[in-house]
Amino acid sequence: MRTLRNMRRLSRFVVFGLVAAAIATELSKPEEERTWNGRVFGFVPYDFRPPTWERIRDAYWNPDSDVLFSDRVFGVGWAVNLYKAKSLLEDLFEQMMGAREAMPIGMGSRSRSGSE
């Protein structure tokens, strides 16, 4: 229990540090050069611009992208491309369970026994 609590504290510390570093990066630029999006330490993406529906869709449901993790729409870190996650889970399911053949569904009338 104590280890879990320490991990939460550490993760909060890292997140707050990344947010502070992202804001400091933008504030260190001249005002006309501030874009409020980029990467902290050249690795962790950040974006503090107001989100748009197009950016939300591209981050969280993008069939045209091959990446599982995309840049977040707002904040620091990554978003999960749910379309790619769905595709990966479907592929994993097929590998584990084998390809399923479609089961025929008979919608015809039932024959009654003894009515002939």
Distance between the termini: 72 Å
Overall morphology: elongated
Helix content: 40-55%
The helix tally amounts to 3
- DSSP strand (E) fraction? 5-15%
Q: N-to-C SSE series?
A: HEEHEEEH
Uncertain stretches of 5 or more adjacent residues:
none
Total domain count? 1
Which structural category fits the helices and strands?
alpha+beta
As laid out across the biggest beta sheet, the strand order is 1-2-4
Number of strands: 5
What does this structure look like?
The chain has 116 residues and is α+β, with helices and mostly antiparallel strands. The chain has one domain (2-97). It is built from 3 helices and 5 strands. It has helices spanning 2-27, 53-60, 82-97; strands at residues 37-40, 44-47, 69-71, 75-76, 78-80. The strands form 2 sheets. It has a 3-stranded antiparallel sheet with strand order 1-2-4, covered by helices on one side. It has a two-stranded antiparallel sheet with strand order 3-5. A hairpin with a 3-residue loop joins strand 1 (37-40) and strand 2 (44-47). The N and C termini lie far apart (72 Å). The relative contact order is 0.10. The model has no long low-confidence stretch (mean pLDDT 89).
Task: Give keywords.
116 residues; three-stranded antiparallel β-sheet; elongated
Give a summary of the structure in a few sentences:
The protein has 116 residues and is an alpha+beta fold. Helices cover 43% and strands 14% of the residues.
